[in-house]
Known about the structure:
Helices cover 73% and strands 5% of the residues. It is mainly alpha-helical. It starts with a helix and ends with a strand.
Amino acid sequence: MSFIGNIIWFLLGGFLLGIGWIVAGILWCITIIGIPLGLQCFKIAGLAFCPFGKKIVSTGSNPMSLILNIIWICVPGIELAIAHLVIGLLFCITIVGIPFGKQHFKLAHIALTPFGTNAL
């Protein structure tokens, strides 16, 4: 199921979503201070291309990831998480869209607090 889900996801918007995250990562990395945020965008892009069959796991919390998550939430995090939540809710209106809505909820979770989490 995850292979077919990833193919459908990729063809019907996952490609554009992943490209958007890559562009955001490049723009963050242009500024030297934004490199940590840009690297998180690249991590989320990998999940955005093929989210089926992957889980979000916590890699442990430390004071630095907490500080960086607070900065992330203040700058792009809340807007990105809300966007993924709204899109996920729209997908969940139909029965066929529920698996895709769940993937957007997964993306909303990692878009809100990317530091200290990984997609495996």
